[in-house]
From TrEMBL:
Signal peptide: none annotated. One of its GO terms (cellular component) is nucleus. It is found in: Cytoplasm; Nucleus. Pathway: Protein modification; protein ubiquitination. SMART domains: WD40. This is DDB1- and CUL4-associated factor 7. Belongs to the WD repeat DCAF7 family. Its main location: cytoplasm. Keywords: Cytoplasm, Developmental protein, Nucleus, Repeat, Ubl conjugation pathway, WD repeat. WD repeats lie at residues 262-296. PROSITE patterns: WD_REPEATS_1, WD_REPEATS_2. The lineage of its organism: Eukaryota, Metazoa, Ecdysozoa, Arthropoda, Hexapoda.
Amino acid sequence: MASQTSKRKEIYKYEAPWPLYAMNWSVRPDKRFRLALGSFVEEYNNKVQIVSLDEDSAEFAPKATLDHPYPATRIIWIPDNKGIYPDLLATSGDYLRVWRAGDTEIKLECLLNNNKNSDFCAPLTSFDWNEVDPNLIGTSSIDTTCTIWGLETRQAVGRTAVNGHVKTQLIAHDKEVYDIAFSRAGGGRDMFASVGADGSVRMFDLRHLEHSTIIYEDSTHTPLLRLAWNKQDPNFLATIAMDACEVVILDVRVPCTPVARLNNHRSSANGLAWAPHSACHICTAGDDHQALIWDIAGMPRAIEDPILAYTAAEGEINQIQWGATQPDWIAICYNKNLEILRV
């Protein structure tokens, strides 16, 4: 075992044929180092590719590639770490699409459009797949709304068919909504938050949708682009403002006042990912080529410096994901490259 461990590398790299943006780890127990990647090409024809790491050869190999209209704004594998659901993958862009992954191909299962009166759909900026109830997906859109979809996977002749319906749609913000994320609070099914161009973080409860809670408003009303909930302590979440070098940590028990500001990035922060196994670690990444891991256990004392830093010499990091079932690994994307880093 020791000799096998010593052979393992600290960094694995894959170069795609196109610039990358969206990216997500598979959590299925039988697919350890499998990731889905989305191209970022400024035209209609884009791609989604599934890659897997062969631990013997220490190389990433593409397993399947599909055509995707426009760049995917987000990709998420079904949060099914027991492997009991169909092997599904969802993407957002012009619509929400759910795909089925086979060993060598990916097939479209359903395309979800909540505008029944028109083929036109306001672009989706992001989405989140509920980890407690994988039949729920929430999308955010530039039309100021969030939509909660109910998925059904039902047995058809010889295979499982997947379709979906709108459970609820709500006007979430005064301007475009840029990100949405379910919280693990209160059982993990009904609470979610969103951020948008109005510079606010708002929290919703599916059981009481007649009102929302504004957790935070940027003092200059700068648009907020990303948010992420702490995976172990649902009181904390993090958000990033447009063109800001800092990441803001919020405590829902103390609305409107950040409990910490992480500001070692030297140019715009682009991504953030909480540790799946620890309540006090978060990773941030940005245009300064850096991925930084922070220990926030000292809050509310100021968090001065990260505890780990990695520099991607060749490019601005635009995406970061911490392996949900493999907490030793963080994945980053820059230019055409995917790297997974052992932490």
